[in-house]
Amino acid sequence: MSNSIISTLKKKVSKKTWDNWFSTFELKAVEDERVVFSVANLFIKDWLQTKYGAVISDSIAEILGRRVSFEIVYKNKETPSVDSTSDQISGSLLKRKPLMISNLNPEYTFSNFVVGSENKALYEVALDVTQNPGKYNPFFVYGGVGLGKTHLLQAIAQETMSNFPDKKVLYITSEQFMNDMIQSIKENNIQKFRDHYRKKSDILLIDDIQFLIGKKGVQNEFFHSFNELHDSGKQLIICSDRNPEELETFHSRLKSRFQMGMLMSIQEPRPSTRFHIAKQLAQRESVSLPDDVAKVLADNIDGNLRRLRGAIIKLIVHSSVFRSQIDLSLATQILQSFTGSINVPAFQRPIDQIYSAIEKTMKVTKKEIESGSRSKDIVLARQLTMYILKNHFGKQVTEIARETGKQHSTVIHSLKKIDKSVMMGKGATKLLYDDVIGIITSNSAAV
Ligand code: ADP
Ligand code: MG
User: Fold this and answer.
1) Residues 245 and 369 in one domain
2) For residue 84, pLDDT beyond 60
3) Is 150 annotated as a binding residue?
4) pTM: predicted TM-score of the whole model, two decimal places
5) Which of 290, 312, 339 finishes a domain?
6) Atom 5 of ligand 1 has which residue's CA nearest to it?
7) So where does ATP get bound (predicted)?
8) Measured from the CB, is residue 122 less than 6 Å from ligand 1?
């Protein structure tokens, strides 16, 4: 069976794709309701799910004769072996991914959580919970898919662990809770299960409680665990995709328990917050996203941040595989596959945007900049152009050299020179730089 699913899949993709992406792909389990595969790391997992989810599904259906969902897990071990055919996929990008310790994602921390005014209060209370367990009990957070509930919950778990190394912090999804319970019933050892949750945890975090809708038996068990923990002052933190009121089939006594502590919703980030989240999501992959790219992503992908993350991962992988820059034109291409229609500022090459902004502020024309003139103003305008290409638009030195027709060493020299003035806040150059950037960003914001 395993061989057939894998070999069917192999026939459906090109050899290059197989070698690049599926070299660590293995079948782990075929269960009634799902098939589980494993890969080397989180990065490959995300990529396969985004890009090859449909093909994987089709291969499973072909062999099992019906549609069964699948899950990809990643192995808890060192870096994958990146064979020679995949060396284009920047090895460092793969290697840089942090490893999972425990069941918490090490990236889901408070410092990686971008806060806009819309979620400021929620963030403050969450931090307070990590410092004063038991103060708001339970702490119940609800909101739509991809708004950061799991991230926040795991940040609370990790922060509490570091604040109180002696306390036992338990983070699980309600699905895991149910599976553990079923397993313990099968093994005739429900007591062990109860002790695990009720006696051995000081702080219990339960993710996606709405999963228990319609599962009365588990709800009942959870109710007792909840009460026992709550009565002994242990902190409970719960999240859900909906308000407790809307948890159909949940007994009203359980719903009212959920509301007796601190009940807060998580809000959809507004575009300006999404802009910072986009930069942050890229930063986690050690990539610096140029401002104009972050803006176009933030303006076009709303709501679910998993989609924003998906677009960014796709962008990074494309730029890495095809050795192209992460710029507005690549972002536009990727966005099209995500949203169909997009709202991109009338496209003007970055260098032309700079030229026209410089002409407005310094009265130096594109023609003069492109000439060989050594006059002081023109040299400065030329150096500033290179600097902005690098710092604002994220271009690499090689590309700047190509676009401006200058030597590699000249570019490096210019970048250093301007960097020094700008960094030291040296009067005129810094002011000029700010003016030019001001014009560029207001132009792109106006569209
Ligand atoms: P939910 O559990 O609400 O469906 P997640 O916690 O899984 O959402 O968030 C989806 C993705 O968006 C994750 O990669 C998460 O790290 C990221 N994310 C969500 N909110 C923020 C935020 N405020 N700052 C940075 N990243 C965020
Ligand atoms: Mg979640």
Assistant:
1) no
2) no
3) yes
4) 0.61
5) 339
6) 148
7) 146, 148-150
8) no
Task: Using alpha carbons only, give the angle 45, 50, 51 rounded to the nearest 5 degrees.
Answer: 100
Please tell me if the CB atom of residue 126 comes closer than 6 angstroms to any atom of ligand 1. Answer: no
The conformation of residue 240, written as its DSSP 8-state character, comes to E
Question: Do 167 and 217 reside in the same domain of the chain?
Answer: yes
How much is the pLDDT for 95?
A: 37
Residue 407 maps to a domain:
yes
Does residue 242's CB lie within 6 angstroms of at least one atom of ligand 1? Answer: no
Q: 29 and 59 share a domain?
A: yes
Neighbouring-strand partners of residue 36: 29, 71
> What pLDDT, on the 0 to 100 scale, is given for residue 343?
53
CB of 307 closer than 6 angstroms to any ligand 1 atom: no
Give the ranges where 340-426 is alpha helix by DSSP (H): 350-362, 366-370, 376-391, 397-404, 408-423
Q: ipTM exceeding 0.95?
A: yes
Q: How many angstroms separate the alpha carbon of residue 360 from the centre of ligand 1?
A: 41
d(CA 156, CA 169): 10
Which pLDDT score is estimated for 1?
57
Is the peptide bond between 269 and the residue preceding it cis, with omega within 30 degrees of 0?
A: no
Provide the pLDDT for residue 80.
36
The ligand 1 atom nearest the CA atom of 119? 23
**Residue 193 domain-assigned?**
yes
Looking at the fold, whether 229 and 261 belong to one and the same domain comes out as: yes
pLDDT band at residue 306, thresholds of 50, 70 and 90?
Answer: very high
pLDDT tens digits along 108-150? 999 999 999 999 999 999 999 999 999 999 999 999 999 999 9
What is the dihedral angle through the alpha carbons of 251, 252, 253, 255, rounded to the nearest 10 degrees?
A: 90
On whether residue 101 sits in a domain, the answer given is no
Closest-CA residue to 27 (of 54, 58, 2, 57): 2
In this structure, which ligand is nearest to the CA of 174? Answer: 2
Nearest protein Cα to ligand 1, atom 21:
148
Q: Is 270 in the pocket of ligand 1 (CB under 6 A)?
A: no
Q: How confident is the model at residue 16 (pLDDT cuts 50, 70, 90)?
A: confident
Find out whether the beta carbon of 91 lies less than 6 Å from any atom of ligand 1. no
pLDDT of 92 above 60: no
pLDDT on residue 403 = 85
The pick from 305, 306, 316 for probing ligand 1's pocket by mutation, whose C-beta has the most ligand atoms within 8 angstroms, reads: 305
Provide the domain count of the chain.
4
Ligand 2 is an ion; its neighbours by CB within 5 Å are 149-150
